[in-house]
Amino acid sequence: MTNLADECGTDAEIYKRPFPPTVHVDTRTGAPAALYDLLDQLGLQRHTVQQGDQTLTFHTAPLHLDFDEQKRVATRAIPGLLLAGYKINCTPTVFDEPTYDQAVHDIRVRKANPAAQPPAPASAPSRSAPARRTP
Fold first, then answer.
1. What is the rounded CA–CA span in Å between residue 89 and residue 15?
2. For a surface tag, which of 24, 67, 94, 120 has the fewest beta carbons within 10 Å of its beta carbon?
3. How many C-beta atoms lie closer than 10 Å to residue 25's C-beta?
4. How far apart are CA 77 and CA 96, in angstroms?
Protein backbone atom coordinates (compact mmCIF):
# COMPACT_ATOMS: atom_id res chain seq x y z
CA MET A 1 0.00 0.00 0.00
CA THR A 2 1.47 3.34 -1.05
CA ASN A 3 1.38 6.25 1.37
CA LEU A 4 0.77 9.44 -0.62
CA ALA A 5 1.41 11.70 2.36
CA ASP A 6 4.95 10.31 2.65
CA GLU A 7 5.49 10.60 -1.10
CA CYS A 8 4.20 14.20 -1.24
CA GLY A 9 5.75 15.44 2.00
CA THR A 10 2.44 16.43 3.59
CA ASP A 11 0.76 15.55 6.86
CA ALA A 12 -2.30 14.25 5.02
CA GLU A 13 -3.37 13.57 1.44
CA ILE A 14 -7.10 13.49 0.68
CA TYR A 15 -8.03 11.71 -2.54
CA LYS A 16 -10.50 9.40 -4.28
CA ARG A 17 -9.94 5.65 -4.33
CA PRO A 18 -11.69 4.23 -7.41
CA PHE A 19 -13.11 0.81 -6.43
CA PRO A 20 -15.51 1.38 -4.82
CA PRO A 21 -15.37 5.18 -5.06
CA THR A 22 -14.36 6.35 -1.58
CA VAL A 23 -12.64 9.35 -0.08
CA HIS A 24 -9.37 8.20 1.42
CA VAL A 25 -6.99 10.13 3.72
CA ASP A 26 -3.37 9.02 3.97
CA THR A 27 -1.38 10.42 6.89
CA ARG A 28 2.38 10.51 6.99
CA THR A 29 4.32 7.72 8.63
CA GLY A 30 4.86 8.57 12.27
CA ALA A 31 2.06 11.15 12.32
CA PRO A 32 1.26 12.37 15.82
CA ALA A 33 -1.70 10.83 17.62
CA ALA A 34 -3.21 14.32 17.73
CA LEU A 35 -3.60 14.27 13.93
CA TYR A 36 -5.37 10.90 14.03
CA ASP A 37 -7.60 12.11 16.85
CA LEU A 38 -8.45 15.33 15.01
CA LEU A 39 -9.39 13.40 11.87
CA ASP A 40 -11.65 11.22 14.04
CA GLN A 41 -13.26 14.30 15.61
CA LEU A 42 -13.84 15.82 12.17
CA GLY A 43 -15.96 12.85 11.13
CA LEU A 44 -13.48 10.62 9.32
CA GLN A 45 -13.14 6.93 10.18
CA ARG A 46 -9.80 5.48 11.25
CA HIS A 47 -8.54 2.20 9.81
CA THR A 48 -5.45 0.22 10.74
CA VAL A 49 -3.92 -2.43 8.50
CA GLN A 50 -1.05 -4.71 9.39
CA GLN A 51 1.31 -5.15 6.45
CA GLY A 52 4.20 -7.39 7.34
CA ASP A 53 5.95 -5.82 10.32
CA GLN A 54 4.43 -2.40 9.56
CA THR A 55 1.14 -1.01 10.84
CA LEU A 56 -0.52 1.44 8.45
CA THR A 57 -3.13 3.89 9.70
CA PHE A 58 -5.41 5.83 7.36
CA HIS A 59 -8.85 7.40 7.39
CA THR A 60 -11.84 7.32 5.08
CA ALA A 61 -15.02 9.31 4.92
CA PRO A 62 -17.84 7.17 6.36
CA LEU A 63 -18.25 4.30 3.91
CA HIS A 64 -22.04 4.14 4.24
CA LEU A 65 -22.33 7.60 2.63
CA ASP A 66 -22.55 8.14 -1.12
CA PHE A 67 -19.48 9.63 -2.77
CA ASP A 68 -20.82 13.20 -2.91
CA GLU A 69 -21.52 13.20 0.83
CA GLN A 70 -18.09 11.64 1.49
CA LYS A 71 -16.56 14.56 -0.43
CA ARG A 72 -18.45 17.02 1.76
CA VAL A 73 -17.32 15.32 4.99
CA ALA A 74 -13.67 15.39 3.88
CA THR A 75 -13.87 18.95 2.59
CA ARG A 76 -15.46 20.18 5.85
CA ALA A 77 -12.45 18.74 7.70
CA ILE A 78 -9.85 20.74 5.77
CA PRO A 79 -10.16 24.13 7.52
CA GLY A 80 -9.86 22.50 10.95
CA LEU A 81 -6.77 20.61 9.87
CA LEU A 82 -5.21 23.76 8.43
CA LEU A 83 -6.00 25.77 11.58
CA ALA A 84 -4.30 23.06 13.63
CA GLY A 85 -1.16 23.66 11.56
CA TYR A 86 -1.16 20.55 9.40
CA LYS A 87 0.00 20.54 5.80
CA ILE A 88 -2.88 19.10 3.76
CA ASN A 89 -3.40 18.33 0.10
CA CYS A 90 -6.79 17.49 -1.40
CA THR A 91 -7.29 16.42 -5.00
CA PRO A 92 -9.76 18.43 -7.10
CA THR A 93 -11.89 15.29 -7.54
CA VAL A 94 -12.69 15.37 -3.82
CA PHE A 95 -12.62 19.10 -3.01
CA ASP A 96 -16.05 20.76 -2.82
CA GLU A 97 -15.64 24.55 -2.83
CA PRO A 98 -19.10 25.53 -1.50
CA THR A 99 -18.68 23.09 1.41
CA TYR A 100 -15.20 24.47 2.14
CA ASP A 101 -16.48 28.05 2.08
CA GLN A 102 -19.30 27.14 4.49
CA ALA A 103 -16.87 25.37 6.85
CA VAL A 104 -14.59 28.43 6.90
CA HIS A 105 -17.61 30.67 7.52
CA ASP A 106 -18.75 28.45 10.41
CA ILE A 107 -15.29 28.63 12.02
CA ARG A 108 -15.24 32.43 11.70
CA VAL A 109 -18.68 32.71 13.27
CA ARG A 110 -17.63 30.50 16.20
CA LYS A 111 -14.49 32.61 16.71
CA ALA A 112 -16.47 35.86 16.53
CA ASN A 113 -19.07 34.56 18.98
CA PRO A 114 -17.17 32.67 21.68
CA ALA A 115 -20.35 32.43 23.80
CA ALA A 116 -21.62 29.90 21.25
CA GLN A 117 -18.61 27.66 21.93
CA PRO A 118 -18.44 25.18 24.79
CA PRO A 119 -16.67 26.63 27.83
CA ALA A 120 -12.94 26.11 28.06
CA PRO A 121 -11.70 23.80 30.82
CA ALA A 122 -10.98 25.54 34.09
CA SER A 123 -7.37 26.48 34.61
CA ALA A 124 -5.38 27.80 37.49
CA PRO A 125 -6.26 31.39 38.30
CA SER A 126 -3.77 33.90 37.03
CA ARG A 127 -2.73 37.09 38.77
CA SER A 128 -4.54 40.07 37.42
CA ALA A 129 -2.61 43.09 36.25
CA PRO A 130 -2.59 46.05 38.63
CA ALA A 131 -5.17 48.72 37.85
CA ARG A 132 -3.84 51.73 35.97
CA ARG A 133 -4.35 55.08 37.57
CA THR A 134 -4.94 58.16 35.55
CA PRO A 135 -3.98 61.57 36.96
1. 9
2. 120
3. 26
4. 11
